[in-house]
Amino acid sequence: MLNAPSGTILAVITLNMEEVGGGAPIFFARDEEKQEKIALYLSRMLDATVHDLENGTLIIIRH
Hints:
This protein is α+β, with helices and mostly antiparallel strands and 63 residues long. The chain contains one helix and four strands, in the order ββαββ.
């Protein structure tokens, strides 16, 4: 994933399991605090940016 092309979704962090699917790794969080913490750690490790879809789902994308 470190060599993923620009614009690639590297991970999805969600509060709602029914809202997501697809090929990127999906992380389920119990609450918004845990979701933010997971997103922060993953974005730092993957050198990527977190985007809020405002439906209980965050995505991490390499720009």
